[in-house]
Amino acid sequence: MLAAFIDHLALRPADLLAVKSYRPQDPEGVTALLSHGFVPVVTAMDHTIELDLTPDTDAILAAADRRWRREVNKATGQPDLTAVFLTDPDERLRAFDTFVRMYAALQQRKGFSSGLDTAAYRDLAASDPHLLFLEIRQGGEPILVRIVHTARAVWTDFFTASDERARSTGAATLAVWRIIERARQEGASRFDFGGVDPAGNRGVFDFKRALSRNVIQSGPTWIYARNAFIRRAAATALFLRSI
Q1: Which of 18, 131, 145, 159 has the fewest C-beta atoms under 10 angstroms from its C-beta?
Q2: Domain 47-217, what fold?
Q3: pLDDT tens figures, 104-133
């Protein structure tokens, strides 16, 4: 299959092909990549925190840090704080627009850059049946939007954004907890937090680690080019960019 895929692409000598693996591959897949000259590149960004969903929710919560349990109890004890899963296409578009506004404000507040093209992604995200949209509302008003990719075995946290009101309510904790409950109900066995950055974003890392300490490698990125020099140069550049 990989050979047919490469033949179909008809790469020119200077073209690059990158395959990003978000899960560890099976031995046959790794063998195929190595056999065709792909070069694996592992960086700090190729790591995530994963939660085992096979225990029941009481056991999952009991294994979490005390502060995480406290935040869950705090959030679930607020009657004006609700979690709403959105299925209507118009509601999903509206929620995505809310996410964009919150995400832009968050970028300005924290000063980070992002390669997410929200304008290009808007219609794709809203219509993708594999994406779960969750709004946390306070008094009926959205204060947090979370977008999660769903699959048979693994649900992966993709994007989240919130406003200042969410911080004092425990909205982020409630969102993750409701998604975990939903994932278990639909038969998923693992929840992927979508990456970790303890050096650059310690607060978010600590939030995720309070629920699970299972840090795993989610990469690597496999680099291919017909020209061996270009292949090695691209792999080296990708590695150095992450340092």
Answers
A1: 18
A2: Aminopeptidase (3.40.630)
A3: 998 888 777 778 899 999 999 999 999 999
